[in-house]
Structure formats: structure tokens, C-alpha cells
Specification:
- The chain has 167 residues and is an alpha+beta fold.
- The protein folds into 2 domains: 21-69; 93-167, no CATH class.
- Helix content is 29%, strand content 31%.
- The chain contains 4 helices and 8 strands, in the order αβββββαβαββα.
- Helix 2 runs antiparallel to helix 4 (157-165).
- The longest helix is centred in the first third of the chain and has 19 residues, at 2-20.
- It is extended, with a radius of gyration of 23 Å.
């Protein structure tokens, strides 16, 4: 009986850890790379260092993979069945509501966009975007050939589940 209670307690603890840990997605084009971190559970990152690399870490397991070295296996052709199954009608309104509720749970913590079009006239026309109240802190039109995007987004899995199941 003690073992059953301890296993159930451990499973509840792991479930709470998964649902309450934060998911952070970071994109930085100044150094070509992006990454995703899920609390203490794990992280994945892709970056360019003379070739593209993928780094994965899940708890105590860590692996760096060279993406140019991955070879695809030739797949065998799949036999198609002759029976035609009737398609289910998809309620697009309901799907759109659920997706929009999930997107509303995502928080943008950092967003910076620098743009240089290499056309001085067009840059001068876009330059007032630096001073608008909403995007002035995030958009930077420049004349010195800087183009980059820095984006940091975070969300909690429990908020996403709540947004999905909310009516």
C-alpha cells in the first residue's frame, strides 16, 4: 500500500512540474540561432557555427547533432487502400476560437526589430515608425545596415490547457 501511495505522489509531482514550469522560446538573428527551454525539464537550441547544429538536453541527457550529417532513409512506397472513408466536417469556427484562446495565453517579454532597406529614401519614409507610442520601443529603422530580430516569448502549459478547454 505504501508503494502505491508513493508512486501516485511521485506521478502527481511530475504532472505538477510539467504543468507549472514555464516554456520560453528565444529567437535572435544577430547570432543566427533559436532556442526553446521548458523549465528544468529540458531545452533545445539550433545555431549556426560554420554549419547548422542542433543541441538537445532533456534532464541529464545531452546531445549535439550536426544537421548537415543527417541522412534520410529511403522510404518504401505506402499502399493506398481502395476504400474511401467519408470525411468528417471540421468546425472551423470552434477551431479558430480554441487557437485564438491558446495564442492569447502567450506573453511576449522582449521584441526588438531593426530594419535597414538599403534605400535611403524608403528608410526616411519609414523613420517616423521609431517614434510611434506603441512600437517605438520595439522597432528601430536605421541607416547603418543593421537588420535583426530579437524575440523572447514565454507561456505556461497550464494556461494553454485552460485556454483550450475553456468554453
Amino acid at each position: 500500500m505504501f508503494w502505491l501511495i508513493s508512486i501516485i505522489t511521485l506521478l502527481l509531482f511530475i504532472l505538477c512540474l510539467i504543468l507549472l514550469s514555464v516554456i520560453v522560446v528565444e529567437v535572435d538573428t544577430r547570432i543566427p540561432g533559436a532556442g526553446m527551454r521548458w523549465g528544468i525539464i529540458g531545452k533545445a537550441r539550433i545555431w549556426y557555427d560554420d554549419e547548422w547544429w542542433l543541441g538537445i538536453q532533456v534532464l541529464f541527457y545531452r546531445k549535439n547533432i550536426r544537421l548537415a550529417g543527417i541522412k534520410r532513409k529511403n522510404s518504401k512506397p505506402v499502399k493506398k487502400s481502395l476504400k474511401i472513408k467519408p470525411k468528417k466536417k471540421l468546425n472551423t469556427g470552434m477551431v479558430f476560437k480554441k487557437v485564438s484562446r491558446i495564442i492569447k495565453t502567450i506573453e511576449v517579454t522582449e521584441c526588438r526589430l531593426a530594419i535597414d532597406t538599403n534605400d535611403y529614401v524608403y528608410n526616411a519614409q519609414l523613420y517616423p515608425l521609431n517614434f510611434i507610442p506603441v512600437g517605438g520601443k520595439h522597432i528601430f529603422i536605421n541607416f547603418n545596415n543593421e537588420n535583426y530580430l530579437v524575440l523572447k516569448v514565454m507561456c505556461y502549459p497550464w494556461k494553454m490547457l485552460y485556454g483550450y478547454f475553456k468554453k
